[in-house]
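Please decode residue identities from the backbone states below.
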């Protein structure tokens, strides 16, 4: 049975304000819970329905017994930010990162506001081994529940996520993704450190960010369509930068 305090806490974490105040965020689903446990991330609260626990004993047995509690499907529907809860929900601490490593490559996001895109970007960055993600002030909170769900555990493999000024990256080649840039065919794996900059699908790169770029690259259009999803575009560009 969930306590009233736990109920209030979890519901408050739907909002960015309270995630920031409490330093906590919500994760849901088998994949995200497994990734958190594999990364040895302490789970403050874990709640699972009886049906979920019976089907996934190998997972629930990995959680400290004093941290996991049973919850009814009705209670989970009330607490979960998801429209269709998977049967398990956990609360864990937002990582307190040290300073970014300026000797490594970065992704930089300029006003990316869609949480699904944010999650896809984090997941894709982790896949390609780019573990630092800088954010402009206009970006969606990376710990937004929809972003966390879309990232599928990628948060636990990144070494740094935070706000960043491109002007501080004077030892990196700053590459912007823009449909007016040179073809991706000109983009090769670089020996020097780089920052790959992506903007929102609706507005592209801001003028402030454009002023800081060393070059822009574009993915040639072969078929039809207005634009590529920003996460898909990033994956294509990272393949060229890291191959």
């Amino acid at each position: 049975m969930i306590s009233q305090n736990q109920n209030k806490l979890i519901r408050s974490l739907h909002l960015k304000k309270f995630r920031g105040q409490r330093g906590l965020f919500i994760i849901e689903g088998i994949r995200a819970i497994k990734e958190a446990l594999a990364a040895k991330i302490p789970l403050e609260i874990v709640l699972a329905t009886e049906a979920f626990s019976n089907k996934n004993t190998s997972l629930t047995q990995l959680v400290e017994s004093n941290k996991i509690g049973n919850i009814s499907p009705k209670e989970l529907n009330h607490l979960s930010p998801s429209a269709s809860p998977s049967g398990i929900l956990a609360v864990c601490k937002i990582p307190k990162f040290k300073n970014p490593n300026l000797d490594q490559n970065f992704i930089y996001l300029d006003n990316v506001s869609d949480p699904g895109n944010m999650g896809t970007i984090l997941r894709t960055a982790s896949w390609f081994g780019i573990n630092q993600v800088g954010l402009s002030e206009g970006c969606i909170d990376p710990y937004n529940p929809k972003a966390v769900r879309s990232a599928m555990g990628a948060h636990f493999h990144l070494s740094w996520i935070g706000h960043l000024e491109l002007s501080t990256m004077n030892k990196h080649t700053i590459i912007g993704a823009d449909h007016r840039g040179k073809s991706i065919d000109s983009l090769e794996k670089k020996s020097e450190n780089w920052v790959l900059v992506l903007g929102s699908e609706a507005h592209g790169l801001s003028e402030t960010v454009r002023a800081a770029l060393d070059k822009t690259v574009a993915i040639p259009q072969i078929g039809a369509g207005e634009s590529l999803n920003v996460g898909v575009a990033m994956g294509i560009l990272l393949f060229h930068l890291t191959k």
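Observation: The longest strand covers residues 173-183.
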